[in-house]
Amino acid sequence: MRVLFITPRYYPFVGGVEHVVKSIAERLKDSTVLCGDPNIKKIEIEQFGGVEVIKCPVFCPFDSYHIPKKIGEIKETLKKISREIDIVHVHSAHSVFSVYCGTLIKKINKDLDVVFTPHYIGIRGGFNKLLWSLWKQKLSQLLRVSKKIQLLSPTEKDNFSSIFPFTEKKLVIIPNGVEKDVFNYKNKGDSNYLLFSGRIEKYKGIDILPKLGEILNVDVLLIGRGNYIKKLKKYKNVSVLPPQKRSKYLEFLASAKYAANPSVYEALSVFVLESLALGTPIFVTKPILKSIQTFIVDADSAPIKINRRELYLVKQSKVPSWDEIVEQIISNLYK
Question: Is 184 found in the same domain as 79?
């Protein structure tokens, strides 16, 4: 069984979707990744962790959308790949590259089984809502030819099925997992900072973290990149680091007194799961709280309220490893 993953970007780029795809692809015996890369001018082929990675040029305004370039070359690449694979696993409803390539390869080879993981995080702002109303029609084409659609939580399933009710019978809930290296760390809480790791953008709810730090009397440490960093420079209790090596990141997470993910637009955050797995108490919004409900062992019922947003402290949970999750994916999506 050879699987082709289609994803907006891939390692060494650090992002939630990319981390998920890497975690699955490296556990399969035979897999290929087709992804976008805004920093190249022609298609490139590389190897990472035993996985063949085919990178295609894309245009990423605002570090989003992932609009494919070199359409003719991409079509020829898909024609060749379509004869060599058994399953296509497409990731991200928010990536033009993913949806375009997933739909096209099914047209090229109608016998291929297509699996789709939307990582749907909702729509923000008037302009994006206008784009979404148009994009839904294109996305629906991929949804209709997909054999299975993987949602990461009951919350995402409810949101997704309300928008695309015709997908109901195809929906399968399988959450994300965590790498085994996470279980080698235990929270010490020997620092005086609250940690967030991910894209540093306003839609992630980052704007309320300085205030949360004040309330808890701790500093705020953010690890990542994004356009909102410049807005945070005025806060004396906020520090920002670029993406870190895996071991260093886990050390920061294990030392954190608290973690936080204040986003209301999240399918199922790997950062949240990693925090819970090593026992770092984490503040989350109500949508995230609902998404991780099946993992929670202990959480505070009374939230902290900031700017009409509620943050709940989750103290303890049980989180599955990626080995367990990939077994579920093979059994429930690929067979």
Answer: no
Contact (Cβ atoms closer than 8 angstroms) between residue 93 and residue 99 = yes
Contact 155, 290 (CB under 8 A): yes
Q: Could you give the CA distance from residue 200 to residue 196 in angstroms, rounded to a whole number?
A: 9
User: Does residue 319 sit in helix, strand or coil?
Assistant: coil
Q: How many domains does the chain have?
A: 2
Count of all residues that appear for the chain in the document: 335
- Cis before residue 8, ω within 30 degrees of 0? no
Closest of 93, 65, 265, 61 to residue 167, by C-alpha: 93
**Which tokens go with 188?**
């010490």
| CATH number of the domain bearing residue 328 | 3.40.50.2000
- Is pTM beyond 0.85 here? yes
Single out the residue of 68, 5, 73, 14 nearest to residue 33, CA to CA.
5
Q: Sign of the CA dihedral 255, 258, 262, 265? A: positive
The average confidence (pLDDT) of the chain is 92
Measured CA to CA, the distance from residue 273 to residue 269 in angstroms comes to 7
Task: Over range 154-171, report the average pLDDT.
Answer: 92
CB-based contact 88:4 (threshold 8 Å): yes
- Pair of tokens at residue 50: 């035993």
Backbone angles phi, psi at 87, to 5 degrees: -135, 140
Per-residue pLDDT reduced to its tens digit, 209-256: 999 999 999 999 999 999 899 999 899 999 999 999 999 999 999 999
| Tokens linked to 333 | 């999506």
